[in-house]
Specification:
Structural class: alpha/beta
Bound molecules: zinc ion
Radius of gyration: 18 Å
Helix content: 40-55%
Number of helices: 15
Number of domains: 1
Shape: globular
Strand order of the largest sheet: 1-2-3-4-5
Order of helices and strands: HEHHHHEHHEHEHEEHEHEHHEHH
Largest sheet: 5 strands, parallel
Distance between the termini: 37 Å
Number of strands: 9
Strand content: 5-15%
CATH topology: TIM Barrel
CATH architecture: Alpha-Beta Barrel
Amino acid sequence: MNITEFIAALPKAELHVHLEGSLEPSTVTEIAPEVSADEVRARYDYRNFSGFLEAYKWIVLLIRTPADYALAARRLFTRLAAENVRYAEVNLSVGVILWKEQDVGAIYDAVRKESLNAPFPVRWIFDAVRQFGPTEALRVAELAAERVAGGVVGFGMGGDEARIASPEFAEAFRFARAAGLHLAPHAGETTSAESVWGALRLGAERIGHGIRAVEDPDLLAHLRREDIPLEISLSSNLMTGAVLSLRDHPLRRIADAGVPVVLNTDDPAMFRTTLCREYELASVEQGFSAGELRQLAENGFRYAFTGSARGS
Ligand SMILES: [Zn+2]
């Protein structure tokens, strides 16, 4: 069995994938016939984080109805199942839905229905957008809290890390935690290790990206001691310019420091990747052995918010 077959056969979990970033060009042309697949491919090409955010804004504005979101979800689940994914937690950018002044309830009902028909268990994480500010983040936390019994397991926050400092979001995270939601904000992707400390002070149980932790030995030791995993996405980090090359990506150093790691796609269509490809990159570019890849795959289940390690 070669490494590609080995990875394909591994039962995997996907814990950090944005529904909005999963629309392949062919799906985009279905929901927005005025756009060509070539235009989508051109839009999905960038070399830095602001270029990515621009493309993300463009794509979310094309997702206009609950049926569009449902189609995106259906396609994502079909692709993940083909990769032998057995469990997924999917980020829904509720902050963006509010910004678009769309009906969060109708959209969530539509995607939830799709997830109940998926060939593996799916849970949802509602994401706020950092640059939209604390009041909007609290609103997202409230909308998530209303659906704790209906498939939503987490509250997260993405967007531009450099824009607003973490403490301003304490109320939203406190509210979410008290409502029984798990906390998985993005941090330490484009800025610094301090951003990860800020997320930890908000109560983060997993960190989206967090790769800047490699710059702070005390932080690495803390993450190891507290058993807090980093959700790492190699292709994403390369395409947003968070790292200059995959060879230099800190994944290996972070894992060798004993910090738990899960591998994810983040925005698979927008970063032209798949979960299997992320495992292959860990093997080829970072020298992960078959045994280490198996450990990474097991981490996906261990650190799931419904997993045995964390309960829920
Ligand atoms: Zn992300």
